[in-house]
Amino acid sequence: MKYMELAKLIDTTKCTACRGCQIACKQWNEMPGLKTKQLGSYQNPPDLQWNTWTLIRFQEYVNKQGKFSWLFRKDGCMHCTDAACMKVCPSGALHHTEFGTVGIKSHLCIGCKECMAACPFDIPRYNDKTDKVYKCDLCVTRLREGQQPACVKSCITGAITIGGKETMIKKAYARAKELGGDANVYGDKFVGGTHVLYVLNEKPEVYDELPKYPTVPFSIVLWKDVLKPFSLLAAGGVLAGSFLHYIIHGPKTPDEDTATKKGGGE
Amino acid sequence: MKKGLIQATDWYERLVHWMLAISCLVLCFTGLGMMFKSFNFIANMMGGLVVTKYIHNFTGLFFGVALFLAIKMWWHEAGVFEMPEDMEWMNAAGGYLWHVDKVPAVGKYNPGQKMFFLAVAIFGAIMVVTGIVMWFPLRFPTELVRWLFVLHALGFAVIFPLFFVHLYMGTIGSPGSAPAMFTGWVTRAWLKKQHHKWLKEMERKGKLVVSGEEKKV
Amino acid sequence: MEITRRGFLTLTGAVGSGITLSSLGINLIPTKAYAEELNKMNRIKIAKQTTTICCYCSCGCGLICSVDKQTGKIFNIEGDAEHPINEGALCAKGSGFFQMTEANEHRLRKVLYRAPGGTKWEEKDWEWALPRMARLIKDTRDKNFIKTNAKGEVVNRCEAIGHYGSSNVDNEECWLITVMSRTLGLVYIDHQARVCHSPSVGALAESFGRGSMTNHYVDMKNADVILIMGSNMAENHPMGFRWVTKAKERGAKVIHVDPRYTRTSACSDYHVPLRSGTDIAFLGGMINYIIENKKYFNEWVLNYTHASFIAGKDYYFKDGLFSGYDAQKRKYNKDTWVFDKDGRGIPQRDMTLQHPRCVFRLMKEHYSRYTLDKVSSITGVSKENLLKVYEIYSSTGVPDKAGTECYALGWTQHTVGVENIRAMTIVQMLLGNVGIAGGGINAMRGEPNVQGSTDQAILYHILPGYMKQPSASLDTLEKYLTKYTPVSKDPQSANYYQNYPKFFISLLKSFFDDKATKENEFGYNWLPKIDDGKHYSTMHMFDKMYEGKIKGFFCIGADNAVSSPNTGKVRKGLEKLDWLIGENIFDNETYQFWRAPGVDPKKIKTEVFLLPASASMEKEGSISNSGRMVQWKQKACDGPDQCIPVGEITIKIMRAVKELYAKEGGVHAEPILNIYWDYLDRNDCYDALKVAKQMNGRFLKDTVIEDKSKGTKTEFKKGQCVPGFGNLQADGSTCSGNWVHCGSFTADGFNNMAKRGKDDPTGLGLYPNWSWVWPVNRRILYNRASCDVNGKPWDPKRNILEWKGDKWVGDVPDGPWPPMADKEKGKYPFIMQRDGLGAFFGPGMADGPFPEHYEPLEGPLAKNPMSGQLINPAIEIFSSDLDKVARASEEFPYVCTTYSCTEHWCSGALTRWQSWLLEAQPEQYIEIADVLAKEKGIKNGQRVKVSSVRGTVTAVAMVTQRLKPFTIEGKTVHQVGMPFNYGWLFPKNTKDDSANFLTPTVGDANTFCPEYKAFMVNVTKL
User: Which has the closest alpha carbon to C986: C680, C592, C518, C693?
Assistant: First the structure.
């Protein structure tokens, strides 16, 4: 059986920030719209939320040459290969699907929120009423029916596209080359390669909330890849050691003759 | 009760010990059930992972209270090393690991026990603090939370193996020890072997309580 | 490989076939393994699926509704992947379509009534409401009916009832509304088209012969240069921008000229900011550049326009005024705006273009005044930017390049709205960009069916199919037809409007059927007449309402209390009504005007009926997008509870009124008693197809049509649909509710509007078999101008039409006649123009035959740099106490513009009630340049006060680098802008109210489109 590894490509240079994707995601996943305030930006909700799995970020930017541009970036789960969230998930709610994406089985989520701290992109969000965490699952139920994810389908300019991972990486690089300047591809080179790729017009560090060199956090690696196995080994070692001690050295038993000595009053 | 047994612990000590011990065990096993996907069956035995999470979190609070009482109670006895005797004992590994002709006499708690107490006190406190932060991670900076995961795991990596040492030493590794924490009464022989100095101290201070004997005024 | 859009959710039901999936390399996972996760997908697979068309901006995107067969309710709505315009994609509003269904708790479900002095709604039902409304309508009409006017002319009209709306209902419903309001004798009939694209109709008809978008959205992909000016396309016509993006992918250049740097600018190659209200100066400079630098397409100009016509010797232009101006009346006498004619009565021509009074020379002279310096000083655009745009755009003045212009309300909503557009038509004709693929003038209309509602003429000045509204001096049918049937002596001018009588009489027959006979002039005098030279537009209506002269008001699918200009005056007007009948899917500020902030309901005696209407996907019918595509929608499900379609409400109200007149008699009862009104089915429910066929037209008796040129005779039976307007007759044997719709059905009654042919033989995006386009499925208007005089395409790469031997091959030719090189049978390409040619000189305009820069009614300057005329000399000035103006005032120093955003639509009366959209744009904001904010100490995100001389609102300050101050005539002028999508009623506890408290009651000189886009305000901290 052969599964195809997919990647979703977001060409931010074609995005008009129409928010069709932001709302198509809510429509498909039956997420509500909640009360927000106008904070002086088109970006709303101001951040990803449990009910907002993808968000268009708006950023006014002036480059070194003084040229102004308004940068739009569709934020959401990057679907990493080395997924820090999966590493920490106690229940296996976060898992890799056959497409390479990181799926989330809500019924298994226990709301421990470890994935929220672990994620290098700060993506999962918590709902205190359901006590669960939510994020984009790349519409895996749609993919299984050969359908595009809701955001991809809704995209007016074709800024969001999806296909075989290798194809999309090639497409991304070709586009970055066509754009020239500081245009670059983001996603294929870290955390084992993400299944969401960006074509960015500016260097990654220019963009709000986009880590320059995202990695699975060292602390998480230490915890999961070092301490966890060590703790079991140590416990096992002690058990084994105790057994060996018992049979080799023997326990420390009290001396028999002192047991009869009368105590007290001396 | 057999006559001639000596009281090693009073009801309060035992109560606090078991509060601490049981909650610690519950924490370890619920923790294990959540820490490894392959151990999820433990959680399922308790009614599922979500239930396990709640048991773990609230037991942690209980553990925190018990730990506080335990530290308060035992600090000056088990938390303070007396030199140079404790060092000599440690150099001889208390006679547990190889044959030693004469092991220095031990007070109420031997250095091994003191080290265990300190480990539980320090790492236990760390577990409680990191545990609370892990319970409400959204209120703290992400980088801090990540490192507290590490500390929490480290605490477990220390306490869990040491617990098995404690379990061994409290049962088959030192026959006669167990009653100290169950009935509270131990044999004189055991006291003389394990905590000779304490026995002498109690006799000298007139604090020795022997079953079957009236307490002297 | 890339996964392209799947046609999964299509009607074919070909779902998940093994072939298609495995071709993607995806293995078919046994569904049972994931059963618990596939709920929505599983439901979709077994659901009923219907198509519908989006009910927002007029791009006309296709959607698919999935209906649960058990519950009959819609549970999913997404894009139709097979639709050629959107191909499955949807913007924010379209994506959120589901929140318009009954799943939205705010949907109106019951008939609501507010009694005089009442403080809240009472629930009623249709049985109660219909007789009550009919009673009110009849009493108000009879009491206030005007049989003759002050001059003694018979007018048969009722001025005491006004009607507004709607561009949001289907064509068939619009037509019913028009028929009902005309037969009731109303003259204050208007709707959103007035405040949206009424100038387009005026301008484009003057230049080309028809008032609509010449090309269409998909066609934009064929352009080499796209000028987006007077539009914020990526935000307000997002799907249109899809095709701009495709053009860009082919190497096209996109220029965005707009006071603000918007989401459109971010995706364009160049953003050129200009002061709001100075577009004519900008375009005047471009015309000057094109002429001076000889960038025009000479052959095209000579042959396809009237550049060579010679104007009368008494025509002149001096210091901002054209010949014939009467300053008292603020009107022009146009007697001097004529052409010299030869002995045959055909306009004289100088093909060398040297004659000092030839149109070309007059135009050259007129625009020579628009020098770079002048233009830069007026508009605030740097000379560098001006030259850049002029150079790039004028590079399309060659046969193998196409330039298109896309505009919307940024051009129409000005006192010079019509002339803004006229200026661009001049540019396009100079460059030969009309009639070609990737060219034309793309007038992007703002509402889903505003093209349709304009075609069906819910407007005071026209009747369906752009027939003219009769005026009082035309007391006989003959006088009327003589006036409006143009006569051309030029044998090469098709002058298609010479068939006017056929269209008009067929129209009357559709109103009155066999009651309209030759003897009674087909019912001509039953219709109301407007007074000559007087106007009854929205602003006029609210002016009269404010005076207390209007007693009853229909507000259908609209929210005037938020969207009409100078809303303080509008709301005071509403308070004086005796009754208001509203029809909508949500409640809004207009229907609850009686408890608006500051209003005491106990003092308001208006009876208000709020009738629950079915939403767009809950009824069958057609809507026309901006590209004239008349798309048939299917009905997904019934509306909830008491909801019925607006068409049904209209039919039943009129039926109830008719019954009252039949029983009691009344004033001028003939049109009401004689109306043909059989549009319900056997179950007493709305039958859209019946109406659609009436609009298309039917043969009223067995008829034989002879085509002499082809030598054919075709027989038609009584009742058959008329298959094309060439078959309409002036003898009463045909009826047609709207001649431009003729051909939407075949003679056998096949509905062309529902076609889903996906073939595109030219590859240029014509899709000739997808739906139906008026007129007669012609996709690009004036397409014979895409060929030379011999019928060979100017650009073989953009071949939409070609004369091959003895016929045209490609798109439906704009006029079947041979190319004009054939002196005997050939015709000029602009067949709806009397002279058959594109018009630079427009004598039909109220404010002058050439566009000229005038300052907005309320602007920053005290003197017009171009001339002694500060403001448009032909605009009507309203003078009630609430019509104040503050020109060049220190108290209101900032130029303000109003607009919409992607997430909200018009007044927000639909979108504010939808939580997904409201979440994305929750509150009213005002965009202020960072330098201005700093000056005033205003912080980003802080609520501020925005005031004009007419009113005040608050908004959240959005401090941005996207606005920069302009240097106008040497001084710094700031531009600010705010959306008009917010009102006090919803969301609850909002601090917002309509931005239209700030705007003035003034509009374009020709069509009264309000000047929402340029007025003066102040912004201060609260």
Answer: C592
Angstrom distances, CA of residue C800 to CA of A111, C766, C768: 61, 8, 11
Q: Who contacts C82 (Cβ-Cβ below 8 Å, separation ≥6)? A: C7, C10, C62, C88, C756, C758
**What span, in angstroms and rounded, lies between the C-alpha atoms of C631 and C756?**
10
Write down the pTM of the prediction: 0.93
Label residue A264 by pLDDT band (50, 70, 90): very low
Chains B and C touch (3+ CB pairs under 8 A): no
What is the arithmetic mean of pLDDT over C889-912?
Answer: 96
pLDDT confidence bin for C16, thresholds 50/70/90: very low
In this structure, the strands spanning C607-612 and C111-114 are antiparallel
In CATH, which of 3.30.70.20, 3.40.50.360, 3.40.50.2300, 3.30.470.20 is domain A6-216?
Answer: 3.30.70.20
List, as one string, the DSSP characters of chain B.
Answer: --TT-EE---HHHHHHHHHHHHHHHHHHHHHHHHH-GGGHHHHHHTT-HHHHHHHHHHHHHHHHHHHHHHHHHHHHHHS-PPTTHHHHHHHTGGGSSS--S-PPP--SS-HHHHHHHHHHHHHHHHHHHHHHHHHSGGGS-HHHHHHHHHHHHHHHHHHHHHHHHHHHHHTTTSTT-HHHHHTSEE-HHHHHHH-HHHHHHHHHHT---BTTSPPP-
Nearest to A251 among B157, B164, B172 (CB): B172
How far is Cα of residue B68 from the mean position of the Cα atoms in its chain? 13
Average pLDDT, chain C: 94
pLDDT score at B7:
86
Phi, psi dihedral angles at A126 (to 5 degrees)? -105, 140
The domain made up of B11-176 has a fold known as Fumarate Reductase Cytochrome B subunit (1.20.950)
The nearest alpha carbon in chain A to B139 belongs to: A117
User: Chain A: residue nearest C97 by CA?
Assistant: A27
Residue entry with tokens 């707009």: C258
pLDDT in tens, B49-94: 999 999 999 999 999 999 999 999 999 888 888 888 888 888 888 8
On chain A, the residues whose CB falls within 8 A of the CB of C959 are 40
| Helix and strand counts by DSSP (H, E) for chain A | 8, 10
Q: How far does B77 lie from chain A, in Å, by closest CA?
A: 23
Q: What is the DSSP letter of C346?
A: P
Q: Tell me the helix, strand and coil percentages in chain A, rounded to 5.
A: 30, 20, 50
| Contact between C995 and C1012 (Cβ < 8 Å) | no
Candidate from C89, C98, C263 with C-beta closest to A27: C98
Side-chain-side CA neighbours of residue C389 (13 Å): 30
Q: Report residue C10: phi and psi, to 5°.
A: -105, 175
Provide, for chain C, the percentages of residues in helix, strand and coil under a 3-state DSSP scheme, each rounded to the nearest 5. Answer: 30, 20, 50
pLDDT at C820 over 50: yes
Distances from the Cα of A266 to the Cαs of A261, A263, B202, in angstroms? 12, 8, 12
Counting as contact any 3 or more CB pairs under 8 A, the partners of A are B, C
List the one residue out of C235, C407, C242, C264 whose CA is nearest residue C904.
C235
Residue ranges of the domains in chain B? 11-176
Residues C567 and C575 sit within 8 Å (Cβ to Cβ): no
Q: What is the ipTM of this complex?
A: 0.94
pLDDT at res. B1: 66
pLDDT digits (tens, 9 = 90+) for C486-512: 999 999 999 999 999 999 999 999 999
What is the average pLDDT value for chain A, to the nearest integer?
92
Could you report the per-residue pLDDT of C654-705, keeping only the tens digit for each? Answer: 999 999 999 999 999 999 999 999 999 999 999 999 999 999 999 999 999 9
Q: Token digits for C349?
A: 């021509």
Task: Judge contact between B189 and A258, C-beta under 8 A.
Answer: yes
Give the pLDDT confidence score for residue B90 in this predicted structure.
84
